[in-house]
Input
Amino acid sequence: MEKNYSVHILHISAEAYPVAKVGGLADVAGALPKYLNIEGHDAKLVLPMHRTRYLNTHEWEVVHKGVTNMGDHYFEYTVIRESSGTLGYELYLVDIFGLLDREGIYGYEDDAYRFLAFQLSVVDWMSNWSYRPDVVHVHDHHTALIPFILQYCYRYGHLQKIPTILTIHNAQYQGWMNWNMATLLPPYDLWKRGMLEWEGQINPLACGIKCASRVTTVSWSYLEELKYNSNGLESLIQQEIAKCSGVLNGIDAMVWNPASDQYLKQSYNADKVTEGKAAAKRELCDVFGLDSNKPLFIFIGRLVADKAADLLPSIVGESFYHLGRKMSFLFLGSGDPQIEAQLNAMNVYAEQDYSCYIGYNEGLSHQLYAGADFLLMPSRVEPCGLNQMYALRYGTVPLVRKTGGLKDTIKDQGEEGGYGFLFEHASVPDVIHAISRALELYEDKDALHRCRKQMMNLDFSWQHSVRNYLYLYHSVQKS
Ligand code: ADP
Output
């Protein structure tokens, strides 16, 4: 058994809910420190100071001002701390004039430069800070150079021994940089130059995988998949497999709870699931002009190929054609402008059975999980996937492709104790087949009720995952 002493963990991420959110990384980075602290540890979180609403609606105090450099360019950075402490962990934001003072989180031409400046500032601040974490935990490529900087930049030799964990939330994005960016790093051990490189470029994610003490992926199956399909990193993952492990994400059961959800007019628990969901569905259908008597299928997420969002228009058309207009669809998302335009254009043909909301809307996503009968997730790539776990918690039956974290969290209805529908391929026929199975379940009210209650009683909370991370934190301190 592990000795139960308190671990000091510094999380560093590009986004975290409720401060700044684009996707699942934010949900994880915003919840994991809180649940580590609930277990009696000391976890803090550092983010860039994006200009989001949260920044303007909370109180802050300046805790550090420093100067560091990227090559010849010297710049000031400021670290502020959230004053109220209501998040359940200490939250620090790093500001750099001209680089991090923007509304968006990603998508700028100089993202590589911005996130390098952020990482250098964080390490520079750490080197001046009286606090020494036992472990530094970085997330995805935006912070994946930190293990290299800590270990091999001479200037930070006094931080060299701090163990690091890299969590890969999505290996598709690796943060590739031109070699000329290497001159922006503080002087480092040139013998270790190869640590920065993958296939002729600086590859921050690959560098993180090489340099971190341990690497985790956000589900077991995703780690298996990465060995054979990781956007060019396959052989690296295979080489480093001994230090890699899968830790399934949890969900923040305090935020995602239909019994106390601030976005729902009528709260409900497993005992009141039928009434609660019916009320939420009526509400939604009124707003979007849908017929609430039909089973409602939703999709929530980034409208990108990884999520197979390009299939959505055909899924609607082919379902109506093959199965009849027996169901409604409601989609919430943003991303590829072509997919957005197609989804919007389909409104013309809707007969109270289709609608979409193009954009990002946190409150609406809660209302959809509550009001829907079924959630579609045909993802081509799904490292963990949180939507299906939120759906379970709100009694919404997920229809998911057998991949990554979806495979690890959903058990097909056809199996003993199963809940949800799994299908093999990200293809329209596979989805239509799953929809036809879902329609059968919808007709059997007793079975549907049992399934909803069963799903709502499943536990995907952080407690399990926190235990796994703690095991890792303890193990890296010993090694
Ligand atoms: P990814 O991180 O790959 O986008 P995840 O399933 O891990 O996917 O997490 C997605 C998170 O983002 C969920 O909390 C989901 O509800 C939320 N989300 C995605 N798109 C939207 C949107 N348009 N509006 C509101 N929430 C969204």
User: Anything to note?
Assistant: Residues 270-459 form a domain with the Rossmann fold fold (CATH 3.40.50.2000). The pocket of adenosine-5'-diphosphate is lined by residues 23-25, 27, 300-302, 332-334, 360-362, 365, 384-387 (CB under 6 Å).
